[in-house]
Design a protein that fits this description.
4-stranded parallel β-sheet, 20 helices, 17% strand, RNA-binding, alpha+beta, 6-stranded antiparallel β-sheet, 678 residues
RNA sequence: GGCGAGGUAGCUCAGCUGGUUAGAGCGCAUGAUUCAUAAUCAUGAGGUCGGCGGUUCAAUCCCGCCUCUCGCUACCA
């Protein structure tokens, strides 16, 4: 592995419309912080960049809902996020934000450079425009009736009732959420980054040049490249963001995914106004992006293409993306409040920052999605941190206190076993280093704990509490060795457990010692006065865990209550309008799954009028066998539509339950096919 | 459906380019021990390495098919 002069470590910018939860921590911030702390301890030149992502449509919507300005929203969450990271010991060199002046300038200049060098393609498309509010509407600003489930409050990008993703133009009766007026389609011009042109470069750089990347990252990139890249719009019609810095682009801003990664550059600039280019534009700097798997394509495909287009920046050396963390066997979800929020954890478990850091690292989703449970959190604290690490330290200190008044005793003679034990430290250190250099944090942590295990074994084998009656000189040697192990543990565990490391150093009255000294057996000199022993970790009781579990159970109950709300009645219609719908009872004659789809079923229906083909999205809930012979209600005068190449002539009526399950609306006695439903 | 990642002991995970009896931590059982927050130490039980085929002298590791989980994507009148 090439030795770099400088290191630039970035973490995904959390979106400033909500607080940070354990999923963010486990996937991005904890591993990044371990890596950075390690590099610093090795004396490497490293900058650690973080910040809030504060632009984009969801923030403007949240602001509108709360009746405040977008700035107020981002101010609130930026402050909350920044503060909780700080309390949790994520050791950013800077945690800034994309609404900063310097970011606006940087992003603006970046765009301008690409524009001036002809790196963009201009395209005109038709988008909804609100004539009353005098602006184009992002998909999220348009509501209307979902063509699938009839929800009248579906958004232009997605219906939140049935989960379908939509195009704004799909909506029935579209309405602008700004003015309530009916939007009109109008042409608008945007700039696109022609990603397709960068395909050969990306292919060579990633697929040939970075085979060492994690398999999930490499595989995802390969998948994208093999599918073929499309030009992507880098601008939007919106009034919240970085204005597009060219003439004729008034009212347009940079699309949020274009401006956000530039935030890494801006924040470095803010931190190091004079020397930032040493990190961003010098081949002897290694840049590493810590992200979650949802961000792979942005950091491995799009941002590198942007950097390449600009021309003067380096590309990331690695992008160690993690998978996702689940919570108590369920997906973490901000909207469902299914999460452990960092700021709440810090309040509920004061002084236990390292317990969460430990649990999240030991169980990090490095290779696949993992599950966080409070029981596991308690077990790892009680059985590992307390029983192995804390206990060993406590034993060494308490024995020294008891026998030698807390003064590091002098070594008489080292036995072979003593020497072997001490020699083990350097081996463990090498293993930890190797793990961390290769982004294997789980493994590094386990290795670190092996040092404490070694200490416990050493004490059990040498039994100083027995020897004290017969051979005080030997006990002095034993405790000296044990204390050296404890001191080494204080140093070795620092990247992972910085708070405990500091407390242990304090307990040992250990001065600042270089990482390279780990493995030495004279970190504490004889005659050195130790501090008062206190407990490094405390047990976590069942009631603490039960409190957290109850909170989650309450959330679940609340979610179930909220999940089903009968949608409000639609506006009145006349009988004539109703009677235009021709609904008949029909019988299913044949049913077969449509190949190459998950949900579509092709049905042949005897409507009494004729026999016709209808395609319906019910394959997930019914088998063909149970459908044949069934009587159903059919809207027969719905305009035909092609689905997967099959002409669908009508619609089967179904009721969708709160959990999405579909149920037929069917006559409760057999009737003739073709009978009218009214 | 397409693509990607994953399916290894009760739980969480290792297993690097195929090679002797498949490993670790936690949990469990038994024994030892009492300096220590009943904390530790030793020993042990426990796996048809998702299923079926194939390549090979030899496959957890390579190839094909199937199946389950997660993600991206298509589809839902």
């Amino acid at each position: 592995m090439k030795e770099f002069k400088r290191h630039l470590v970035t973490t995904a910018l959390p979106y400033a419309n909500g607080p940070v939860h354990i999923g963010h921590l486990a996937g991005v911030y904890v591993p990044a912080d371990i890596y950075v702390r390690y590099l610093r301890l090795r004396g490497r030149d490293v900058v650690f960049i973080g910040g809030s992502d504060e632009h984009g449509v969801p923030i403007t919507i949240k602001a509108r809902q709360a009746g405040v300005s977008p700035q107020e929203i981002v101010d609130r969450y930026h402050a909350l996020i920044k503060d909780s990271f700080e309390r949790f010991g994520i050791s950013f060199d800077i945690y800034s934000r994309t609404t900063s002046k310097i970011h606006h300038q940087t992003a603006s200049n970046f765009f301008k450079t690409l524009y001036d060098n002809g790196k963009f393609v201009e395209k005109e498309t038709e988008q909804y425009y609100d004539a009353e509010a005098h602006q184009f509407l992002a998909d999220r600003y348009i509501t209307g009736t979902c063509p699938h489930c009839g929800n009248e409050r579906a958004y232009g990008d997605q219906c939140e009732q049935c989960g379908t993703s939509l195009n704004a133009t799909d909506l029935i009766n579209p309405k602008s959420t700004l003015s309530g007026s009916v939007p009109v389609l109008r042409a608008t011009k945007h700039w696109y980054l022609p990603l397709d042109q960068y395909e050969p470069f990306l292919r060579d750089w990633i697929l040939e040049g970075h085979k060492e990347w994690k398999s999930n990252v490499y595989g995802q990139c390969k998948s994208w490249l093999d599918l073929g890249l499309q030009p992507r719009a880098v601008t939007r019609d919106l009034d919240w963001g970085v204005p597009v810095p060219i003439k004729g682009a008034e009212g347009k801003v940079l699309y949020v995914w274009f401006d956000a990664p530039i935030g890494y550059i801006s924040n470095t600039k803010e931190l190091l106004p004079d020397t930032w280019e040493d990190y961003w534009k010098s081949d002897d700097c290694s840049m590493v992006h810590f992200i979650g798997k949802d961000n792979i394509v942005f950091h491995c495909i799009i941002f590198p293409a942007m950097l390449k287009a600009e021309g003067s920046f380096i590309l990331p050396q690695n992008v160690p993306a993690n998978e996702f963390l689940n919570l108590e066997n369920d997906k973490i979800s901000t909207s469902r409040n299914w999460a452990v929020w960092l700021h709440e954890y810090l309040d509920d478990f004061p002084g236990k920052e390292d317990v969460l850091r430990y649990t999240l690292t030991a169980n990090a989703p490095e290779t696949k999605d993992n599950n966080f449970t409070w029981k596991d959190f308690q077990d790892r604290n009680n059985n590992e941190l307390v029983a192995i690490y804390g206990n060993f330290v406590n034993r060494a200190l308490v024995l020294t206190q008891k026998y030698f008044d807390g003064i590091v005793p002098k070594i008489a003679d080292l036995t072979d076993y003593d020497k072997e034990t001490l020699a083990e430290i350097a081996l463990i250190r090498a293993n930890v280093e190797n793990s961390l250099e290769n982004f294997r944090f789980r493994e590094g942590l386990k290795e670190t704990m092996n040092l404490a295990r070694l200490g416990n074994k050493y004490l059990a084998d040498t039994e100083p509490w027995k020897l004290i009656k017969t051979d005080e000189a030997r006990v002095k040697t034993i405790l000296n060795v044990a204390l050296q192990l404890a001191a080494n543990m204080a140093l070795l565990s620092e990247p992972f457990l910085p708070f405990s490391s500091a407390r242990l150093k304090e307990m040992l009255h250990l001065p600042e010692i270089a990482w390279e000294c780990i493995g030495n057996s004279d970190l504490l000199t004889s005659g050195h006065m130790l501090g008062e022993p206190f407990l490094l970790f405390e047990k976590i009781e069942d009631e603490d865990i039960e409190k957290q579990l109850k909170r989650l159970a309450d959330t679940k109950v609340a979610n179930e209550k909220n999940s089903f709300k009968a949608s409000p009645a639609k506006s009145d219609i006349s009988y004539d309008e109703f009677s235009t719908m021709d609904i008949r009872v029909g019988t299913v004659l044949e049913a077969a799954k449509v190949p190459k789809t998950d949900k579509l079923m092709k049905l042949l229906i005897d409507t009494g009028i004729d026999k016709r083909t209808i395609v319906s999205g019910i394959a997930a809930y019914f088998t063909p066998e149970e459908l044949v012979g069934k009587q159903v209600c059919v809207l027969v005068n719905l305009a035909p539509r092609k689905l997967k190449g099959i002409d669908s002539q009508g619609m089967i009526l179904l009721a969708e339950d709160a959990d999405g399950k579909l149920v037929f609306v069917t006559p409760d006695q057999a009737v003739m096919n073709g009978v009218v439903v009214k």
